[in-house]
Write a structure and sequence with these properties.
This protein has 12 helices and 9 strands. With 313 residues, it is α/β, with parallel strands linked by helices. The strands form 2 sheets. It has a 6-stranded parallel β-sheet with strand order 3-2-1-4-5-6. A 3-stranded mixed β-sheet has the order 7-8-9, covered by helices on one side. Strand 2, helix 2 and strand 3 form a beta-alpha-beta unit. Helix 4 runs parallel beside helix 5 and helix 7 crosses helix 9. The two termini are 31 Å apart.
Length: 313
């Protein structure tokens, strides 16, 4: 029986919330990395990682954490990337790959490239997976199974060494169980504005609206929550710092999509006002097919559980 060799000998993950700790757990469980270091600004997080025993080493000094790393993955809020990248750049070794897991790629890519030393491969990435939970206890190794990870390589890089680095990073994510796709960073940000960022914005808003209604008490909102509203509250429970950063960093794409959504919502409002039942039925039928398509592609189960059956928290 052969033993799988790690894709990267030494991995450093900066930030250990849900996604970061899932990367750490998966890289260990599936032998994608030989040695794993977790770096975080929070000593509480580092102490918890130590107690959980999910990493080989923990380090509060980011420079020391990345000094020998073959792969560095940022799992921080996206607005923190620029400062952290600037701080670690002098410590990165030649040939190292630097990537991330953020939901915005354009601004992250710019920040990484601006500080990166020569000989370091910047390859932004985004695993499309997660739950509303956060912190090092929230992660699980199975989070990325059959989910998509999008890589957005730097368009200006055409050298063989960079191409090999991209292929190696793709292999890393496949070992973690993900399907891998490459995409232009700006197109990624538009796609995610539609599929992730706007739904979160709507969820935050609808839950906030329900809580602010003078005619309905907050206790009633919680007591009589129907399934649709409960789904919104799950999304609205996502990490506020992470989502604050996403909306600021991807504001152009979000505002573009929000403008289209507002127009469609106004059209829907008119249909309701004028009792246009057939128009409503046509829309609801079409959107129902989208849900069925998501299930057919294996990105959700018929009974929604948001990936909870994949992990053991």
């Amino acid at each position: 029986m052969t033993t799988q060799l790690p894709v990267f000998e030494r991995l450093t993950v900066i930030g250990c919330g849900l996604i970061g700790s899932s990367v750490v757990r998966a890289a260990c469980a599936y032998r994608a990395a030989g040695h794993i270091t977790v770096a975080d600004i929070s000593q509480t997080v580092l102490d918890r990682v130590t107690a959980l025993g999910i990493a080989d080493a923990v380090e509060a000094d980011f420079g020391k954490a990345v000094a020998e790393a073959d792969l560095v993955i940022f799992a921080t809020p996206v607005l923190a990337v620029a400062d952290v990248m600037a701080s670690i750049a002098p410590h990165l070794k030649a040939g190292a790959t630097v990537s991330d897991v953020g939901s915005v790629k354009g601004s992250v890519s710019e920040a990484m490239q601006a500080a990166a030393p020569a000989g370091v491969h910047i390859i932004p990435g985004h695993p499309i997976a997660g739950t509303e939970q956060s912190g090092p206890d929230a992660g699980f190794a199975e989070l990325f199974q059959d989910r998509w990870t999008i890589l957005t390589p730097i368009a200006a890089r055409h050298d063989d060494a960079y191409a090999l680095a991209v292929a190696r990073l793709a292999s890393f994510w496949r070992v973690l169980g993900a399907q891998v796709e490459q995409m232009d960073e700006r197109h990624h940000d538009l796609v995610l504005a539609v599929t992730s960022h706007l739904p979160h914005l709507i969820a935050y808003n609808i839950v906030g609206t329900a809580a602010d209604l003078e005619e309905v008490t907050q206790a009633e909102v919680m007591k009589y929550s129907a399934g649709g509203f409960r789904d919104f509250t799950r999304i609205a429970a996502s990490d506020p710092t992470m989502w604050r950063d996403i909306f600021v960093a991807n504001r152009e794409a979000v505002l573009d999509v929000l403008g289209r959504f507002t127009e469609d919502l106004q059209a829907l409002s008119r249909a309701i006002r004028w009792g246009e039942a057939e128009k409503l039925h046509e829309l609801f039928t079409r959107t129902r097919e989208i849900r069925r398509g998501v299930i057919a592609l294996g990105q959700e189960s018929p009974e929604p559980n948001f990936g909870r059956d994949r992990g053991k928290h």
